[in-house]
Amino acid sequence: MLGKMMDQPLLISALIKHAARFHSDTEIVSRETDGTLNRTSWQAIEEQSRRLMAGLRKLGLEQGDRIGTIAWNNHRHLKAWFAISGGGMVCHTLNPRLAPDQLIFIVNDAGNKALFFDKTFAPLIAGTRAHLKTVEHFIFMGPRDPEIEAAVPGAVFFDDLVQEAPQDWPALDENTPCSLCYTSGTTGNPKGVLYYHRSTMLHTFAIAVPDALNLSSTDTILPVVPMFHANAWGIPYAAAMTGAKLVMPGPGLDGDSLLHLIESEKVTLALGVPTIWQMLIAAAKKAGSRMDSLKRNVIGGSAAAPSMIATFRDDFDCETLHAWGMTETSPLGSANQIKGKHLGLEPDAMAKLRLGQGRPPFGIDLRIVDETGAPLPHDGQAEGALQCRGYWVVDTYYGKTENTLTADGWFDTGDVATIDADGFMVIRDRTKDIIKSGGEWISSVDLEGIAVSHPGVAMAAAIGAVHPKWDERPIIIAVKAEGANPSQSEILALFEGKVAKWQIPDAVVFTDAIPLNGTGKMLKNKLREQFGNYLIDQGA
Ligand code: AMP
Q: Whose CA is nearest to atom 4 of ligand 1?
């Protein structure tokens, strides 16, 4: 033998062991469901996770069992994650905002044997449990509570389970499943993506580096993105790896609650979808706060409007990192960090570069292809179907036998993008949302970015409305900002000079609210149902 390195499996338990050993007193702060704040540490999270793992085993749960969670981001949820995955079981985060019948479908499809639930969701459990065929244990995330005993008879209590003596983390193969997350299923039933210890660990290493999310033990991180949205983008794992302080928002996802946490806990980095930032910006402006501690935020899940990135930069001295990913990609697929050659770029050029979704970290490969599947050039101009492959990209959905890849082994994302010679990717649209006018494509993302740059517009969606001559023409569905009353012509004037004349929307339709899915994304299919015939109705 020439020599040998240690052969240690890549396991999630190693993350929490490391955090407990080398960042033992670093705080984890969470807002409880009753609004109070809980303070604990990495050391206590690790110990309690091992107690909980022992409690789960006592209930008869075994390696490979799927265990669901319906919960906010908080310390009990974190302990459940590490106990379940670290113990060799599969942590299945459920999105409580899904319609009950979708939730029932997902729990049954996953074959969950146990289900953790937060107080908020006790009525949901009470109302659906008769249909949850495989669930043997309902675990309430709190102390013994007569109200819960009445609402969910037979419930087990989290705080009782953590009374068990802690057990050691088991040795597992790194190719053991650790967690499960379903896609949002806007079209058809949601599909499960099963993550492995190995894929999750490689993803965790990759997202922490400076050219990705740039995480460090000096950070205080607020994952506003829920743990049920693609594992909170991997932040709980990466925070344990780096020993960062975590601030968990619980159910308080409104602007004022988030602002309060950012200020009181001196949050340096927060992550979430665009709809969250809109509420936070409004709350901070109203309160006259500059959110001084907040140096960086990560926006993903939907395109970040250029005006939002500018507001963070100019009004709050906060650098926005625009990132792209999917449930199927664990989720990080790209992040917009500059390269050495961009240092010293003029502010305008720098700002422009940073608008897109950025470049893939090591471990992810991206390409764009045409309708025949032929690769297109990375010249920043050609638009094509975005495909990816890598260490943490889905191969086969949960419970399926056929893989979901192209013949040459790539995963088709359903997005349309450009990629430039430096690898910087820009999402132009979802394939199904792009507006097709007279045979040409119009990016709904571009139009929305311009519409929301009007201070009187709180939210805007661009959709293709049916048109007798052009097949589709773009229209904007807009929600007015509180107290504002912008006119259609004012908004349409913003498009002059920013897009080609034929891309300027035909109309702006005001509405009270834009329907959002469970992860805060605009439901364009619902808008098309509602407003798709608007131009025809107007006599086009
Ligand atoms: P999900 O798996 O529900 O998180 O949805 C993934 C989809 O969200 C992607 O395929 C994109 O269409 C969209 N998405 C995620 N991040 C971004 C982003 N930064 N800009 C535009 N779209 C995004």
A: 326
CA 529, distance to chain mean position in Å, is 26
Residue-wise pLDDT for 225-270, tens only, equals 999 999 999 999 999 999 999 999 999 999 999 999 999 999 999 9
Answer yes or no: is 344 within a domain.
no
- Positions of E strands within 232-337: 245-248, 269-272, 296-299, 319-325, 332-335
pTM equals 0.95
Domain that holds residue 471: 435-537
Q: Residue 523 maps to which CATH number?
A: 3.30.300.30
The residue among 273, 230, 229, 265 whose CA lies nearest residue 248 is 265
CA of residue 250 to ligand 1 center, whole Å:
23
Rounded Cα gap, residues 328 and 360, in angstroms: 15
Ligand 1, atom 5, residue with closest C-alpha: 326
- Residue 501 is among the residues annotated as catalytic for this protein: no
pLDDT band at residue 187 using 50, 70 and 90 as cut-offs: low
- Of 221, 243, 265, the residue at which a domain comes to its end is 243
Counted domains in the chain:
2
Provide φ and ψ at 364, rounded to 5°.
Answer: -125, 135
**Cα–Cα distance for residue pair 178/530, rounded to 1 Å:** 41
In a domain, 132, yes or no: yes
Of 47, 406, 441, 480, which one is the catalytic site residue?
441
Residue 177 maps to a domain: yes
Asked whether 517 lines ligand 1 (CB < 6 A), one says no
CA proximity to 194, closest of 488, 441, 341, 392: 392
pLDDT at 184: 76
Which ligand 1 atom minimizes the distance to the CA of 300?
A: 19
Q: How far apart are CA 532 and CA 530, in angstroms?
A: 6
Closest approach atom of ligand 1 to CA 323: 19
Residue 156 lies inside a defined structural domain of this protein: yes
Contact 210, 232 (CB under 8 A): no
**Domain containing residue 206: CATH number:** 3.40.50.12780
Average pLDDT over residues 28-38: 97
Helices 255-265 and 274-287 cross at an angle (nearest 10°) of 70
Query: What's the pLDDT band for 189 if we cut at 50, 70, 90?
Result: confident
Is 328 in the active site? yes
Output 336-343 pairs: Cβ under 8 A, ≥24 positions apart: 336/424, 337/210, 337/211, 337/212, 337/214, 339/422, 341/422
DSSP SS3 for 112: coil
Q: Is 200 in the pocket of ligand 1 (CB under 6 A)?
A: no
Mark which of 224, 243, 262 sits at the end of a domain. Answer: 243
Residue 59 and residue 215 in contact, taking contact as beta carbons nearer than 8 Å: no
Task: Please give the helix or strand (H or E) that residue 150 lies within, else none.
Answer: helix 146-151
- Tens-place pLDDT, residues 502-534: 999 999 999 999 999 888 889 999 999 999 999
Dump the DSSP string for 359-425: BPPTTEEEEEE-TTSPBPP-SSS--EEEEEEETTS-SS-TT-SS--S-TTS-EEEEEEEEE-TT--E
